[in-house]
Amino acid sequence: MKKSLKPYDILKRVGFNFMIIFVLLYLLFPFYWAVNSSLKTESQLFMTPATAVPRDPATLEFSPTLQNYSVVLRDGQFLRGLANSTIVATASTSLALIAGSFAAFALGKLRFRGRRPALYLILAMTMFPQVTVLTGLYAVITVLGLSAIVSMIFSYLLFTLPFTTWVLTSFFKGLPNELMESAQVDGATPFQTFRRILLPLTAPALVTTGLLAFIAAWNEYLFALTFTAIEPGSRTVPVAIAFFTGAVAHQEPFGEIMAAASLVTIPLVVLVLIFQRRIVAGLTSGAIKG
Amino acid sequence: MAVKNDGASSKKSFLPRKPNFSIPARREEKLALKLLLPTLLIIGIIAFYPLAHVFYTSFTDRIFAGREETNFIGFDNYRRLLSVHIATLDPVIDETTGEIVVDPETGEVVYERPIDILPREPIRFREVNQFTLFGTRYVVGATDRNFVLAFSNTFIFTVVSVFLELVLGLAIALIVNSKFRFRGPMRAAMLVPWAVITVVSARMWEWMLAPGRAGMFNAFFDWLGVVERPIAFLAISTFQLPAMIAVDVWKTTPFMALLLLAGLQTMPEDIFEAAEIDGASKVRQFFTITLPLLKPAIAVALVFRTLDALRVFDIFQVMLGQSQYSLASYNYFQLVANRNMGLASAIGVLIFFLIFIFAISYIRMLGVQRE
């Protein structure tokens, strides 16, 4: 049914490409604009009309500046935020992966009474509104006298743990039962089978799930904002950026904020692009296959 | 769950297995419980205990981080949050002429002041909104005006943003699903908004929406010549909610598109080939084949997004501060700024039930079979 190109087909192709360009522009423009603004000086930021690349106000020549970046990097708060975020997100993700892979193995491969209720409990937990327990968690933290960093690590398990458990359960379920049976015939206990045979097989799933949990923890704002309210030194990146006031107290230093925004986004974007396929697979298996 | 059972006979009825496997089975059961223990313990400490605490606190007047004595006040917090009163407003009658007073400038009928109509006991009702229905003017009053507004903001935000995300996400998924040269880079680009921290994306948009011509949108509208003077998008209440929706749609449409794309890619191609041979148009194929087959993927994506949108916090808190609230940001405000822990807990409980109802009804309505 191939026909020669008719004007209508050409029009269709042009229209299609136009749509692709439009979608790309929509997805990438805000990020591009942040990077563009981060390379401008204060006076360049307020030039009218706004320029698509940093230009000299007088000569209109291309003249980017890294001044905003050096201000951000010299600002102790931002670097400390990066360190805090790294500690909190790494610790919370690791705990979620350890506890989650244990639970997932039990839920996915072992037969025991109460398996179904346990599965539903985990599923329900993935939909749990974190904001509901905000006041209660704060009470627990005060009673236990936990520092802000430790409280964030534990409270983030509220969303990282059900997520890792749920995704890994479906992964364990997908592994062939023969693996376990043959190991059992060879005299391995179920736990040995888990540690020596199944866990190495889940390594790719652990990486993907871990990455997604890490991003979720890195992103978290509500708990971080609340728990660091009286402990500003423990602020994570989102809180630091929300509170960013710059070196000098004047109106909001958007050049510097955009520099900070670009600095935290670029590594994440690179990471996401490297693990692109796995992330897409992980997201969809977490959501669709359940 | 962990009840020890010595009678081996009763155990067999639960686990239909060959008898000679019964000892490993019992060991397996023990192992499963041991492996689940850390997770159940953690969930107990960080979810169930706090949840019980929140339910309890919602019936008290507890003050956050204070030494004041806490009293049990029953449903007072809920009464304060949920009391809504609708009253009719009568037109003002001029006492001398006996005619309805009309505003000389706008030419509109002047009505009574809501403050005179709305009840003041036991707590004062404040005006939330006014509307006209069948020629009668009504006023909506509430004892906690901000909560009612936060509720309606969250509701409108959820409905509109999830709808737009579904439509846009479906369009993008269909585009990416067709074969073209830059498909790889396109899929990579889709992950960029998703990877940006929500707070960071809020600040990026805050800057693009900045008042004055330095703001990208104002510069753009100025260049188009559609506005006379720059608009302070985040300060004018008409633009606040649309701005929140715009940020959320940008940030999460790619996620929606990825979920739908995965659904599209599982579709067998021969159905479409058969439809092609039968002479079905592309539009017809979309509505009779693609959409019905995509229903499960759409359902799951909708559930995820709706539950997420209902607890929206970051963008409201960062971009609007205390000028407009979502349910979650109002909860935070009552807890941290107002130190009203009892009231904040009551808001938390209401959010919990709202999400609970949504989750259940969604799963029922769309027939999502999980597991």
Structural notes for this entry:
The complex is a heterodimer of chains A (290) and B (371). By secondary structure, chain A is mainly alpha-helical. Chain A has helices at 7-38, 42-45, 67-74, 76-109, 115-126, 134-144, 148-155, 157-174, 177-185, 190-201, 203-219, 222-227, 237-243, 254-274, 276-289. Chain A folds into two domains: 7-65, no CATH class; 69-289, Orthogonal Bundle (MetI-like fold). Chain A is globular, with a radius of gyration of 25 Å. The mean pLDDT of chain A is 85. Chain B is mainly alpha-helical and 371 residues long. Chain B has 14 helices and three strands. Chain B has helices spanning 8-14, 22-57, 76-82, 114-117, 145-177, 183-195, 198-208, 216-224, 237-265, 269-277, 282-310, 314-320, 327-337, 341-365, and strands spanning 84-89, 126-133, 136-142. A three-stranded antiparallel beta sheet of chain B has the order 1-3-2. In chain B, a hairpin with a 2-residue loop joins strand 2 and strand 3 (136-142). The longest helix of chain B is centred in the N-terminal third of the chain and has 36 residues, at 22-57. Residues 1-21 and 367-371 of chain B have low confidence and may be disordered. Chains A and B meet through helix 1, helix 4, helix 5, helix 6 and helix 8 of A and helix 2, helix 6, helix 7, helix 8 and helix 9 of B.
